[in-house]
Write a structure and sequence with these properties.
Mean pLDDT: 78
Shape: globular
Oligomer: single chain
Distance between the termini: 72 Å
Low-confidence stretches: 11-45
Number of strands: 0
Order of helices and strands: HHHHHHH
CATH topology: Cytochrome Bc1 Complex, Chain D, domain 2
Radius of gyration: 19 Å
Largest sheet: none
CATH superfamily: Cytochrome c-like domain
Helix content: 40-55%
Length: 160
């Protein structure tokens, strides 16, 4: 009599493992520790990147590289980000040099200004949290300051 519920439980466990493996199978890996690289991770029916649906930043228009804005961003980066991030090595968080080759500007901006919700809802942010085990702190960075940091990262530290 006990054998039937145990068999059902084993079958359910097997199905959960299979579904989990299928979800991870074939995910493209990036250079920040194996987090799936999907620039359009969001509802398929909308085609809108998930990071554009999380937080205040929905679009970032990049023009020509702005050295003055990058210099402001370098100052903000040193004050707010450098305790946990470097451009070329892992610290508490992932290295950020070349981040715009792996992430959209909207993703970067929303991680800076809205990290709590990004960590709750974005699968790449969640994978990075799993790897680094320390959530990105919400430092109350304004969109203007975040845009400077983005420009600094865009030049991979050329604003220093």
């Amino acid at each position: 009599m006990l054998q039937r519920p145990v068999s059902a439980l084993i079958l359910l466990l097997f199905l959960m493992i299979a579904v989990g493996a299928a979800c991870r199978n074939g995910a493209e890996s990036d250079r920040t520790g194996g987090a799936a690289l999907d620039r359009t991770a969001g509802p398929v029916e909308t085609g809108v990147p998930l990071e554009s649906q999380i937080g205040p930043v929905t679009e970032v228009k990049l023009g020509s590289y702005d050295p003055a804005l990058a210099a402001e961003g370098a100052r903000s980066f040193r004050l707010r980000c450098s305790a946990c991030h470097a451009l070329d090595k892992e610290l508490v968080g992932p290295p950020l040099g070349g981040i715009l080759q792996a992430r959209t500007p909207v993703y970067v901006m929303n991680m800076i200004v809205n990290p709590t919700e990004m960590l709750e809802r974005h699968p790449i942010a969640q994978a990075l949290l799993e790897k680094y085990a320390v959530p990105m702190a919400d430092l109350g960075v304004s969109e203007e300051d975040a845009r400077g940091i983005l420009e600094y990262l865009r030049g991979d530290g050329a604003g220093e």
